[in-house]
Amino acid sequence: MWIDTHCHLDAPEFDADRDAVRQQAAQAGVGHVVIPAVARAHWPQVIALAERHGDSYALGIHPLYTPAAQESDIAALHAMLAEHRHDPRLVAVGEIGLDFFAAGPPQGKEQPPLGAASHTQWASVGGMPAAGPPQGKEQPSGGAASHTQWASVGGMPAAGPPQGKEQPPRGAASHTQRASVGALPVHGLDAARQTWFYEQQIALAREFDLPVILHVRKSSDQLLKVLRATPVVGGIAHAFNGSAQQAQAFIDLGFKLGFGGAVTYDRALKLRALAATLPLDSLVLETDAPDIPPHWLYTTAEQRAAGQPQGRNTSAELPRIAAVVAQLRGMALQDLQAATTANARAALRGLKGFAA
Ligand SMILES: [Zn+2]
Questions:
Q1: Rounded to an integer, what distance in angstroms lies between the CA atom of residue 53 and that of residue 22?
Q2: What integer is the mean pLDDT of 128-147?
Q3: Which of 37, 72, 214, 346 lies at a 20 to 30 A Cα distance from 247?
Q4: pLDDT digits (tens, 9 = 90+) for 178-204
Q5: Does some domain include residue 268?
Q6: Residue 185 domain flag
Q7: Ligand 1 center to residue 10 CA distance, Å?
Q8: Residue 32 is part of which domain span?
Q9: Cα 96 to ligand 1 centre (Å)
Q10: CATH number at residue 120
């Protein structure tokens, strides 16, 4: 049985057929799905979905949702984690992290609604020359349209990492309601604001002794720096896309590395090399559905112009994605299944309570 360690089953893309999607995954051999949350408004739904299908969930605020998030969401997350701390389905704090690739809307402009923000790696797949879907200027659209808004607004890492070694100017934002220490920095998808939410949530993971599910995008070093200062019990670096050295640094901190649809693209040379060579006990599998469609679901700009929609990724794709990883590693699919299932349970301890 497979475990999809990262599926946004709460995403609006599944509104029409959510139960059927989950059933198809089960029929494909995916026996358990971890549903990470992206924003406060989604927490009740990910909990309900996990209960409905016998799956598990994580609670958190995704970095690309920080422009719309409130400072008070951290207190709400604390309360939610406290309320559910004995819920066996709560397996992590997530999805949290830093995204220094996607650019948010310019400051002062209207922020997208919660549901419109990308909670995905999709733009990084499309935007990196060596990784993934057809190169060129085209932007993913169709099913992935909502996820590309961020990237197409900015199209560059405008929200880059903090300059130099300086820490974000906590409380320096003049327009924040309170000028207290630890106040929320400014607005928009800027590095300081993302870092504030990330650090706050790492502290919560530590307080509740929970692993974390990390969104990593041009941000490995900054994520690692915070983890070294505030160690947690490990977790998953989801849709990992860093270097071999960065991978090892996460492994050294007790993390597993999540691989999904991006690895199915021939052009994803570095990612495929990592999937092939990283220690077997460091790998977990995921789909990030409905995002990061594997190559067999991806449609080109020409195909979309001709009316063929972008393919929607689902958890049912996991075994086929796994087959690609097994082939890259030259190992039997069954062995990869056994290893990655065990690895998922090691990374997210709460999964041990569920049949797999
Ligand atoms: Zn995600």
A1: 8
A2: 33
A3: 37
A4: 233 456 665 667 899 999 999 999 999
A5: yes
A6: no
A7: 11
A8: 2-162+191-353
A9: 9
A10: 3.20.20.140
